[in-house]
Amino acid sequence: MRKRCVWLSLILLLLCSCQTPSSAFTLKPGIDYPHESTVPIQRVTMTFTGDLLFETANYADAQGDFSSYFAGIQPYLTGDYVVGNQEVVIGGETLGVSGDPFVFNAPAGLAKELADAGFNVLTLSNNHVYDKGLPGITNTLKNLSDAGITAIGVTDDPKKANTIPILEKNGIKIAVLTYTYAINRKPPASLSFVTRVFLNSQREFDAQREAQLRADIRAAKALSDAVIVAIHWGREFTYTLSDSQRDAARVMNEEGVDLIIGNHPHTPQTADVLTSATGHKTIVFYSLGNLVSGETDIYRTNDFFNAMFQTGILVQATIVKNTSANRVVIDEIKIIPIVNHFEVGRRDFRLIPLVDYTEEWAALHAQHATVPFFTKSFIDEQMQFLYADFLNALEP
């Protein structure tokens, strides 16, 4: 019974009513929130993942078949929408497959592999979106469409640049806005429409970018029941939030965004519930960390964040609409920590939920060979450090 008392040893299950936070409580595994049967409701369930950063070692190990890699987390890649943050364009072999640092491109077949794993929506607004130019974007959109995956956040058509993506299911319309802090290989001015950048050329969240963000959110709210923002932001390899993360999150909260899903730092970062002056509550995950990656010794950081590079979280959310009151809330949030496991020689890649991970597994991890403090206990401690305050804020 001791495991039930230690939240970091379990899948983290918590419920948050964005309108009445005092009613929040921690759920036991397998117990559903008991809604009043007389209240007409509609529900949409969603799962979000961290960065899908496919690198050279991932391709070499999988040999075109990623089924065993995703098998361990497939029970959690469920819901009406499974949304991944695809950091690598899927431009196909003709553009040159690359998993090396700073320039990425995946084989065309990866799109079907992701669909088979459970993904049906991918966000693509990130700093690598133009790694293979406009052909990379065009091919990515086609490959994902052919695989039955909805791509959000990039376009090769200027006429669609201002179109707000809407996911509609069970009578609920969800607008999904996406942004990146910058693009590594900057497109020419004539192609600046390919994705939305929320910082200026000096990487500042200035008045002009703030005004655009507010206008985008207001337009999205006019078309939808709920607004989600998936945003590529912050500094890599740190728990410290940047000023632009804090400032942009504040603006999004003030404008009525319901859920913010952040990525890019390549480590999980904290979560929070922001409350505006009008009382609107926004759940924000500043970074979900990595889902897919293949490196162990990144020269741009230290041993600590090389270790955290191998971890991430899945976030599951249920969006509930009270049809009689025409009110939508994020009714529950589930947090599932995961480990990107692989052994010395960067082989035998598999994604394992932290609840199933063991010290024996950690001792076999390639990261442990270079960073001995990479252990199950270390990961447990870091997840508690990152999310204990968030959990406490949601308690009655």
Give a brief outline of the structure.
The chain is an alpha/beta fold. It contains eleven helices and 16 strands.
Topology:
Elements: H1 2-5, E1 12-15, E2 25-26, E3 41-52, H2 56-62, H3 67-71, E4 81-86, H4 110-117, E5 121-123, H5 133-146, E6 150-152, E7 166-169, E8 172-180, H6 207-223, E9 226-232, H7 243-254, E10 259-263, E11 271-275, E12 281-285, E13 290-292, H8 303-308, E14 311-322, E15 327-343, E16 347-353, H9 359-364, H10 366-370, H11 376-394
Describe what this molecule looks like in 3D.
It is a single chain. Helix content is 26%, strand content 26%. It is of the alpha/beta class and 396 residues long. The protein has a single domain (12-17, 39-394), classed as Metallo-dependent phosphatases (Purple Acid Phosphatase, chain A, domain 2). The strands form two sheets. Strands 1, 2, 3, 4, 5, 6, 13, 14, 15 and 16 form a ten-stranded mixed beta sheet that branches. A six-stranded mixed beta sheet has the order 7-8-9-10-12-11, sandwiched between helices. The protein starts with a helix and ends with a helix. The model is unreliable at 1-37 (pLDDT under 50).
